[in-house]
Amino acid sequence: MSAHGHESTAAARLPFPEVAAADAAIAERMAARRGGELSALDKLLLHSPPVADGWNELLGALRHKSSLAADLRELAILRVAVLNNAAFEWVAHKEAARRAGVTDAQIDALYDMDPAQHFDYRQNLVLELTDTATFEIAVPDLLFQRVRAEFSEREIVELMVTIGGYAMVSRFLVALQVPPPEGEVGSS
């Protein structure tokens, strides 16, 4: 695959719906958040316009209105993609992580089950929280205390919603077998 961001020719489990005129404004808002084009994910969400609209607002807020540092946000998203084997999510966020200052070595390390040596303390804490929230759901008090000591209440809320939100994204993508945009899928 190439890294040009074009959709793969493989098909998802559901066809893309026809967008009713009454729902065109929702599709336009989604496309605007994406820089003018709908992704395969967006198109599939339009089977339920109210869900698509809410999804767009939530994910737009996480990506563009969060106080969480961009590198931490993208590390959490990419780690969720790895843990849930969500190739679409991985491809869609790999370049965003690079733009946020995440190195290629760090991106590659996200496939390690113990990537700690490649990251600073705050990044490692985000990855530990992401792994724990993904595998165990419940966050132990000791881990939460460490997170609380490093992050503001707003950052904690945004981090937890990012982890949970992108778990939702990955589950949607994987269950519907949405192929990734063309690009490197990763090493796992």
From TrEMBL:
GO terms for MF: peroxiredoxin activity
Keywords linked to the UniProt accession: Oxidoreductase, Peroxidase
Claim: Protein transport is one of the keywords in the record: no
Domain of life: Bacteria
Keyword Oxidoreductase listed: yes
Domain named Carboxymuconolactone decarboxylase-like: residues: 49-111
Transmembrane segments: none
PANTHER family, sorted: 4-CARBOXYMUCONOLACTONE DECARBOXYLASE FAMILY PROTEIN (AFU_ORTHOLOGUE AFUA_6G11590)
Protein's recorded name: Alkylhydroperoxidase AhpD family core domain-containing protein
Organism: Klenkia soli
